[in-house]
Protein 1
Amino acid sequence: VRPEFDLISRIRALARRYSPELVLGIGDDAAVLKRPSGRWSLVTTDALIEDIHFRREYTPARLLGHKALAVNLSDIAAMGGTPREFLLTLALPEDFDQAYFDEFLDGLLATADASATILIGGDLSASRAGMTIVITVLGDCPAHQAVRRDGAMPGDSIYVTGQVGLSALGLSLLQSGVRLSDALSDLQKRALLAHLAPVPRLALGKYLGEHRIADAMIDVSDGLSSDLFHICEESGVGAVIFSDCLPLVIEARNWGADPLVLALQGGEDYELLFTVRKQKLPLITEVQSAFPDIPLTCIGQIIAEPRKMYLERQGHRESLEPRGYEHFRKAPGGASPIL
Ligand code: ADP
Ligand code: MG
């Protein structure tokens, strides 16, 4: 790659955008922003580490740029907010491929444009072990209207957008050697793209927040069972999932995968998981007609038993454990690396 300051100039040249709230962007010691009154700021950060979160070998550069921002936008969506600006911190191996970098930046800035989010700064460093991307997004929402994880109440219905388990299917296809450039079936392509290029549910999240339809919300990043458990823990409630209602990727069976396991434990779907009070349920019809292309599925109900989750199939309830991706989970028999 080029020297640090060439890279920063290139980023600056391509990224420079104006917004009424930006007083000073890339180029000084800090960015300077104005903030409208009556709104609350949202701040979130997420890292993508090579060989932990992605493999460069099967990740097209453009899609990596997109995904690095998209996973952060998804967190803003899950608060019911609007993303405004972001910071980009990169650590790159010294021999990093220039063309890969340029395409990465292209993909990233295209997604920034599509979400009206502007790059206002960051940092650059050399790396001894692969590429690290850390993005921090700043956003806002109307005062008092951030949709938190702790607002669920017994009797609420639980909803999820889209399909769950598609990204995990995509990952397992990639791991078994399937590539985006191969001749793919429609489903294979959708699965690979769900993993490589997830679409954050920004407009829907904002709608659910601003119309006060969701009382608790989270995005599905770790796996449906883990993410639902976060809502249960924070809200001091439990949940029942109706197995037959889950929007599963049934065709995953054709590849020897269990669609239910992919959905409950898979993660990285970046769909929204939210709860709705009984008296707000009629509003779901309006949400669905405002977003006709995003399936909304009622998958269960919040119960009073704290931290207890159940899976209900054919009238029979079994206990449901939170499972999903965990970075520092002890490998069976192995030592825990950090925690
Ligand atoms: P400092 O020494 O003050 O940290 P830098 O030389 O790291 O300054 O950065 C100079 C300017 O370039 C700053 O405005 C910084 O936010 C911006 N910048 C550095 N790296 C990036 C990056 N990866 N993406 C966007 N802006 C960056
Ligand atoms: Mg710096």
Note: The first strand starts at residue 22 and ends at 24.
Protein 2
Amino acid sequence: MITFRVARNARIPSPLCSNSHKTNLKNPSDQSLNAGPFLWGAATSAHQVEGNNRNSDWWAWEQAGEVPYPSGKACDHWNQYLADFNLAQSLSHNAHRFSIEWSRIEPREGLWDETSLQHYSEVLEALRSRKLTPIVTLHHFTNPRWFSEKGGWAWPGASAAYLGYVDKVVQRLGLKAEYWIPINEPLVYVYYTYLSQIWPSKKKGMGAMLEALRQLERAYLLAYTLIHRFASSRNHTVRVGIAKAFMPFYPCQKTKFLSKPSCTLRDYLFNKRMIARFARRKALDFIGVNYYTRDFIQWGGVGPMKLIGMPCPASHGHTQNARTTMDWEIYPEGLGVILNSLRRYRLPILITENGAAVQDDATRTSFIEKHIEVVQQAAQKGLSIMGYLYWSLFDNFEWDRGFHQHFGLIEVDPKDLSRRVRPSAKRYREIIQNAQSKTPKW
Ligand code: BGC
């Protein structure tokens, strides 16, 4: 039996600058905030599903031949969103996370595209009319081309430019959603963009990465304040949080003694630093957890960058657990480790992404069952869990890996883009229905 509840005493922080604007949370025991229904659903991001995002830096990168597979029409979700939301609704989802594409809203600097704003307004209406609570991400890895040409996130004007876009979106769509995620996975983004250099950017290297991270953190904090300020002026309720990738790190057995400090350092830098910083600033209404796998870390040698060690290859044989086609170990216990480590912040937690790319759908079914069981155990131990969002609703464009990674609850035929609901989606529906029948109405 799976029952979930959001703890009634969950701490909801006041917005960033409590002097400059009042909190919109009139009463900390407000039922709509502290005790909403558990959010069940799936997540997507604009560039991965919409198709034809011609003004984004990713599109330009693809056209320049930097990745083997261009996103093209992706899942054509831009056109098929109504039918797609019908499917999500038929699968008993009551929430849906998606992202707004900045390059569609502001295709040229300072030029706002009314058609796109109207489109997202209709998307939000479509979700709400199907009783799918919208969870809106404002930045999920892609940028307008003009922004990238100025230097992207390593440009000192980046966060101010981003805030202009957020302001536009919030003024126009702010009353249509309660859950907002200003930025998705800033650390993953800067790592692949500036260090691995496999994602689009003109600037590269450590200096650019650190500046980009600074800008992204600033952008998050500014957006947090802006959204709250807007909401409180309209008497509207919002919750704003980050969607952050988390991963537990374990020492390589071959160099255990030397690897342990690297794991601790990595854990601090990757899992803890940003959350602690935002929590200290009272700029997190919830922590969005993106969880996929764990890593084993081997000793990396001497030198500032080497201190964080290196991920062990699978050939080190630390685990016999099954792996996904992304070559990620399936390790549900790791989600428990992460959830438990977040207890100290006393903030509600939303599982904003959790999923597996697999060829065999039965593996996805067991992945979902096992991870939800871990979430259930965490909730039973008193953690305030707001919801669980599977990644992803469809098979979609998996960035530099193209369309060969099948994360979807719904299969998308690459030839005609037709949809087929997988058995794992039906099992997920069963879990949701079961949980809902056991959970008291709020
Ligand atoms: C990202 C998604 C991506 C997924 C699987 C997450 O880190 O937010 O965009 O598709 O991982 O790689």
Note: The two ends are 19 Å apart (CA to CA).
